[in-house]
Amino acid sequence: MLDEKWMRSIDIWSHEEILELIDTAQLQADSEGKRLLLDAYCCQGGMTSGYQDTGFVVFGVDIDVQPRYCGDFFVRENAIYFIRTYGHLFDAISASPPCQDYSLTQRIVDNDFPRLISPTRDALIATGRPWVIENVVGARADLIDPIELCGRSFGLNTYRHRLFEFGDWAGPEAPKHPWHDQKTVKMGRELKPGDFYHAVGNFQQVEYVRQDLNLPWMNRDGLRECAPRQYAQYIGVHLQDELRARDDEAMHDMPTPAWSFGEPLWRPRRIPVRTNRRY
User: Of 71, 75, 236, 266, which sits most exposed with the smallest number of CB within 10 A?
Assistant: First the structure.
């Protein structure tokens, strides 16, 4: 049974402070003509950076301090609690629950980690917003109809497979999975340009991995756990298309003004109207 601690606030930020920061983030998104995305379990921001590349202002949430986080806004908080309480205030949500318990490496050393995919999904569904769950291939049994992305499809020198489940929208299809025709250099050996690697554990040549993944701010801890930035770019483009289609549908469903001077008297907001603010 899941420990209730994963459902509660850790009470570092007050409710009012979080609402004020979300409002600031939304104002920034509006001023830049962008949409506001919540990245839950954001860590150092591999997925965040890809979403930023596709035109989102990104608000990160993680239970741990993340001084290297690359996003636009950050709150240290329990991700499930945050999604349940504030997720409906965002245009879209991406979540990467802890993957360690699904990792063969961690199972070998018999470490104990929580499995949070199911409660995270429940929280995401309740928001009514389009969402994405990302995790490792070992989590396949806990995900619903996920697609699988491979680094080889995106020109990376690592395979690093990741699964993505989509909710409240169909999500993109996965690119054709390429043949694994490159051997991975064994850990500890020097990497030469173009070598394929497997960045796990206390891997060496951090700078080589940083450059390949285009994540120059990350340290070893962030690089070995992150989903590649390029995966979020791929998903973010399709997510933006989905949100634009919803805007077009909302515009089509608007009542026609009884009269005007050549321009509609009102237009729907680009973002969901928030009527339940409590300050």
Answer: 266
